[in-house]
Amino acid sequence: MVIIKGAGDIASGIALRLFHCGYKIIMTDLPNPTSIRRTVCFSQSIIDKKITVEDVTAEYAENPEKALDIVEKGNIAVVADEKCEILKSIKPDVLVDAILAKKNTGTNIADAPAVIGVGPGFTAGKDCHFVVETKRGHTLGRVIDNGSAIPNTGIPGNIEGFTWERLIRASKDGIFVQKAEIGDIVKKGDIVGHVDGEPVFALIDGVLRGILPTGTRVYKGMKSGDVDPRGNIENCYTVSDKALSVAGGVLEAILRKK
Q1: How far apart are CA 5 and CA 184, in angstroms?
Q2: Interatomic CA distance for residues 243 and 220, integer angstroms
Q3: pLDDT tens for each residue of 65-93
Q4: Topology, domain 2-152+241-257
Q5: SS (H, E, C) 127-152
Q6: Does residue 39 contact residue 29 with C-beta atoms inside 8 Å?
Q7: 24 Cβ partners below 8 Å, 6+ apart?
Q8: Where do the domains of the chain lie?
Q9: What is the pTM of this model?
Q10: Which end of the chain is flanked by fewer CB atoms within 10 Å, N or C?
């Protein structure tokens, strides 16, 4: 049994790969998820009760007992459990912290026989057994058994020469209103949303790969969307290369711990 903290796009890529390898998976996330790439995030099952990403289906579970039923039925279970309280009643073989908070929000090396931290904020041998690198580049997906991932720079990975320009950020504190759909082709300067009436713009041309849903409470500068300059609409509905690379690292870490 694997419990994955987080059910956003990277966590969902991890879950997809582990599921294909025969692992039973329970995921946890916020009661009101803030995932951007909602078409490939198992967190969306908390809202829609069920979601299929590629060929794998996840279902919302109201409690640990229901989660176990879903897993035994052959699907991934997702619980609205911000603090991962499920660990009190279900003891997994593997715990993967894929919240991507850039810091450790409470994961302990004693939480499971194999504890894996994804991205910066963890130290292998201290608060987890292994860390998996999430920074795009030569070390993406590498397994670290001593030390930490590369510290967060605050600059998104480079795609087609674009970094921070790819992101859509909230213009102010308030309630986000979605004005464009995932999969839409947008141009630089297009309005893709509003925050309390103030427009939020795309900064480059490309395909809208992710966006927050209407009603999400945001703060100024909060990541609210993602434009992919490669413009391939099909990529909006499949797990990313980055997520699969990180997932490969998690799989390696699990097998090494055995």
Answers
A1: 30
A2: 27
A3: 999 999 999 999 999 999 999 999 999 99
A4: Rossmann fold (3.40.50)
A5: CECEEECCCCCCCCCCEECCECCCCC
A6: no
A7: 1, 2, 71, 72
A8: 2-152+241-257, 164-229
A9: 0.94
A10: C
Q: In what order do the strands lie in the sheet with 206-211?
A: 167-169, 223-228, 206-211, 185-186
- Give the CATH number of domain 164-229; options: 2.40.50.100, 3.10.450.50, 3.10.350.10, 2.30.110.10: 2.40.50.100
Contacts 24+ apart (CB under 8 A), 70-76: 71/1, 71/24, 71/25, 71/26, 72/24, 76/15, 76/19, 76/25, 76/26, 76/27, 76/42
pLDDT in tens, 96-150: 999 999 999 999 999 999 999 999 999 999 999 999 999 999 999 999 999 999 9
Residue type, 207: V
Structure tokens at 108: 């302990």
Exposure letters 146-158 (e unless 16+ CB within 10 A, then b): eebbeeeeeeeee
CB neighbour class for 82 (10 Å; exposed up to 12, middle 13-18, buried from 19): middle
Reported as type and span, the H/E element at residue 118 is strand 114-118
Q: How far apart are CA 84 and CA 20, in angstroms?
A: 24
Nearest residue to 253 (alpha-carbon basis) of 138, 129, 151 = 129
